């Protein structure tokens, strides 16, 4: 079934969200010759440690998405202020509608509608509004999910999880965060794999499924 998707749009409220939630799946999609587009809405300049360049996350997301195999021209970066996306809903919706027209995705990967981070929830809600006639799956960021319905799984091989982790190592500014550690990345993939009788997997909530 995953090989049926040819154009995939990944919506990341912040740089690294797409890799954390769906990095293994992105790796597998590209391996299956899907064209993947990645949109980061905020580079969180206000949250970058003082000793680092304010635009470091722009550099890091370019390196991380390249590691996953996403073409440079398929990476779109917006400059919305972190933790303020909910104040810019109409602008974001217009961005998404423009992307719908230019990309014409057959699959959209976005945060869960149960994600409690205000920026993540804004992208999920506006993503649903813009892409309600497209298949949409919500990816898992367990530290922000009070609840998560494991209604869909993408089985992965070890190489896909390794590719995900390697991409995340490009985020040097985020080192030390538990959810970027190799142990966590592989443990969650292993746990999701156990649920479907596979070695590794990523889980998604089915938001829309167009057959």
Choose one word for the global shape: globular
Instruction: Output the strand order for the largest sheet.
Output: 3-2-1-4-5-7-6
CATH topology: Rossmann fold
Strand content: 15-25%
* Mean pLDDT across all amino acids: 97
Structural domains: how many: 1
Q: What is the rounded Rg?
A: 16 Å
Q: Structural class, judged by helices and strands?
A: alpha/beta
Share of helical residues: 25-40%
Low-confidence stretches: none
Q: How many alpha or pi helices? A: 6
Taken in chain order, the helices and strands follow as: EHEHEHEHEEHHE
The CATH superfamily name is LmbE-like
Q: Give the CATH class.
A: Alpha Beta
N- and C-termini, Cα separation? 11 Å
CATH architecture classification name: 3-Layer(aba) Sandwich
* β-strand number: 7
- Major beta-sheet overview: 7 strands, mixed
What does this structure look like?
This protein has one domain: LmbE-like (Rossmann fold). 39% of the residues lie in helices and 20% in strands. The protein contains six helices and seven strands, in the order E-H-E-H-E-H-E-H-E-E-H-H-E. It has helices spanning 17-31, 56-68, 89-103, 118-130, 158-168, 182-196; strands at 7-14, 35-42, 75-77, 107-111, 135-139, 152-156, 200-208. Strand 1, helix 1 and strand 2 form a beta-alpha-beta unit. Helix 1 (17-31) crosses helix 5 and helix 2 packs antiparallel against helix 5.
């Amino acid at each position: 079934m995953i090989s049926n998707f040819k154009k995939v749009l990944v919506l990341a409220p912040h740089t690294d969200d797409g890799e954390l939630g769906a990095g293994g799946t992105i790796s597998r999609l590209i391996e299956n010759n899907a064209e993947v587009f990645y949109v980061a809405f905020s580079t969180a300049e206000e949250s970058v440690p003082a000793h680092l360049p304010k635009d470091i996350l722009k550099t890091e997301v370019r390196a991380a998405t390249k590691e996953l195999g996403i073409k440079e021209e398929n990476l779109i970066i917006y400059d919305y202020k972190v933790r303020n996306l909910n104040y810019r809903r109409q602008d974001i919706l217009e961005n998404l509608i423009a992307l719908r027209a230019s990309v014409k995705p057959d699959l959209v990967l976005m945060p869960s509608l149960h994600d409690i981070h205000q920026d993540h929830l804004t992208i999920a809600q506006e993503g649903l509004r813009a892409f309600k006639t497209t298949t949409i799956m919500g990816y898992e960021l367990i530290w922000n999910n009070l609840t998560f319905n494991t209604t869909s799984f993408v089985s992965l091989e070890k190489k896909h999880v390794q590719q995900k982790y390697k991409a995340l190592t490009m985020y040097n500014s985020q080192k030390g965060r538990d959810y970027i550690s190799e142990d966590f990345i592989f443990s969650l993939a292993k746990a999701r794999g156990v649920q479907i009788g596979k070695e590794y997997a990523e889980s998604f909530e089915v938001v829309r499924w167009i057959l």
